[in-house]
């Protein structure tokens, strides 16, 4: 019989916990201690993944992996809320809108500057100098395109860039 907290556990949640612990050890300058835990942590994570899989099999719970898609209505609501916030300014609205429209990692968005953005016909194209899968920058010639959304201006990346 699974504990209540095990029922909602997923592999991605375990990965997030591991990443949080890693960051915690780094923040407190305890890298050697974290490395010493490495083999034990791997064994622990593997056993928990097996336990989660067994629980999913026994309970018939959904076994999809990864993160569920954010429903558009919720995304639009969050974007509209960010667009109206005075405390954060346009930064969080711009950052989150570009992140979701370009479907890329947050690190990639962090390094976009105006020289990477070009206008082409009815849309913008953004070149990324480097990405996780393109460490050497050889594929920078394959830009991503973003289009406007006149029906929902708070999720429109072109509106956001003008903010």
What can be said about this structure in brief?
Helices cover 53% and strands 7% of the residues. It has helices at residues 4-7, 11-27, 31-59, 72-84, 90-102, 106-110, 157-161; strands at residues 117-120, 123-126, 144-147. A three-stranded antiparallel beta sheet has the order 1-2-3, with no helix packed on it.
Annotation keywords:
3-stranded antiparallel beta sheet, mainly alpha, 3 strands, 163 residues
Can you put this structure into words, describing what you see?
- The protein is mainly alpha-helical and 163 residues long.
- Helix content is 53%, strand content 7%.
- Helix 2 packs antiparallel against helix 3 and helix 4 runs antiparallel to helix 5.
- The chain is extended, with a radius of gyration of 21 Å.
- The protein starts with a helix and ends with a helix.
Question: Low-confidence runs (pLDDT<50, min 5 residues)?
Answer: 1-7
DSSP strand content: 5-15%
Which sequence of strands runs across the widest sheet?
1-2-3
SS elements, strand count: 3
Distance between the ends:
53 Å
Q: What coarse outline follows from CA principal-axis ratios?
A: extended
**Global mean pLDDT:** 75
Q: Could you spell the SSE succession in H and E letters? A: HHHHHHEEEH
Secondary structure tally, helices: 7
User: Rg from C-alpha positions?
Assistant: 21 Å
Q: How would you classify the helix and strand content by structural class? A: mainly alpha
Major β-sheet, in short?
Answer: 3 strands, antiparallel
Helix content: 40-55%
């Amino acid at each position: 019989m699974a504990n209540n907290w095990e029922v909602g556990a997923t592999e991605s949640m375990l990965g997030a916990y591991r990443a949080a612990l890693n960051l915690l050890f780094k923040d407190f300058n305890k890298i050697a201690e974290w490395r010493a835990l490495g083999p034990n942590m791997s064994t622990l994570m593997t056993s928990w993944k097996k336990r989660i899989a067994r629980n999913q099999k026994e309970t018939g719970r959904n076994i999809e992996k990864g993160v569920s898609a954010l429903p558009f209505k919720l995304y639009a609501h969050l974007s509209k809320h960010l667009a109206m916030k005075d405390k954060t300014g346009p930064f969080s609205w711009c950052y989150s809108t570009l992140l979701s429209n370009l479907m890329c990692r947050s690190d990639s968005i962090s390094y976009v500057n105006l020289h990477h953005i070009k206008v082409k016909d009815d849309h913008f194209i953004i070149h990324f100098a480097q990405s996780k899968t393109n460490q050497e920058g050889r594929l920078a010639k394959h830009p991503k395109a973003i289009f406007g959304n006149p029906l929902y201006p708070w999720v429109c990346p072109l509106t956001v860039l003008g903010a």
